[in-house]
# Entry
Amino acid sequence: MVKRTADDWWELLQAVPDPEIPVLNVVEMGIVREVLQEPKRLLVRITPTYMGCPAMDAIADDIRERLAEPASEEGLTTEVELVYAPAWTTDWLTEAAQAKLEAYGIAPPGKTSDKRALNGEAPAVRCPKCQSTETELVSLFGSTACKAHYRCTACAEPFDHFKCI
Amino acid sequence: MNARFEYLLRLGDDALILGQQLGLWTGHGPVLEEDIALTNIGLDQIGQARAWLTMAGRAEHAGRDEDALAFHRNPEEFRCAQLCQQANGHFGDTIARQFLFDAYAVPLHAALTKSSDDEIAAIARKSAKESAYHLRHSRVWMVRLGDGTEESHAKVQESLDRLLPYVGDLFVGDDVAEAAAREGWGVNPATLRDAWESELDDMLAESGLHRPEAVPEQIGGRRGIHTEKLSYLLAEMQVLPRTYPDAQW
# Structure
């Protein structure tokens, strides 16, 4: 019989992409908060980026689908539970994840500890195409709940910015 | 009286009705960006409504879940503020309604993060980030419309004049509100009025809009007394699950 450990489950979860931002997986996104291996079941706790994020059901399905078979080999059922605390923050995106976002064409959120954000000033958002910081906000809301819409005044390219929360 | 159930219904119903109305803007926004903005805000409201109504259902101990509460109650059983059920109207009407609500939601969620109930505090911490962002959006537009053209100013001033009488429900400090504050898991919304007034004054000063003189307030939403509009809104929202109660998506 195979004996999988917590590390194995986390590794398997890294093969589940975020349905809206497939360049990141659900672990990198900070959506997976906890994996608990109990005698009879494997419990995965996930948290939404936004309360109304419509991708949560799809994410839960994808996680169940990915883990169901290996879990059953261990005699475990797979359950996914939605939790709200602690509240998701973009600070959970690692440096590597932020770099992947930028390479994908989405300006990463930066850190919530950014003093400009504290002072109520808009932090400089860098264009993911030409790296210019000469950018302007087009709309506070973008293609998904977690993004805002920007435009680069240097290269004229429109782009998404991952909102810093 | 089950104060906890009543209180959570108020939170859930405000968000649900507002979210449902914002969703009606899908495909009808004045520009693409605002179409997306209004529906994104609506999505956040629906997300918050789901969390509060799920909790309300558990507090009631009658086996009702979020769907049973949203789709199988009659208008008089709803506890939303009358402000939330005011018609979408034109873009300025929707923005004014949203601003008046957001300016209340921000201090509300901030206060609820200190709830003695871990789950209420968690939902509030999450909602607080969203409501702050919503307020940023609605406030920018109040200033833009108020300080814009003669026409936009006149239109949004008229929206404000018509909607202000409906904010009273938001700050009702009745026995439910007092129980919530006394027991520590909620906040009495009457205590939020000062913060709301100062947010409003701040916006008025920047937009050049003004308060209408003497506003008699309509109160009743928290006791199930609503405007006619809510019946039509619920009829449209509930028709499918009421006609086919066991339908699955």
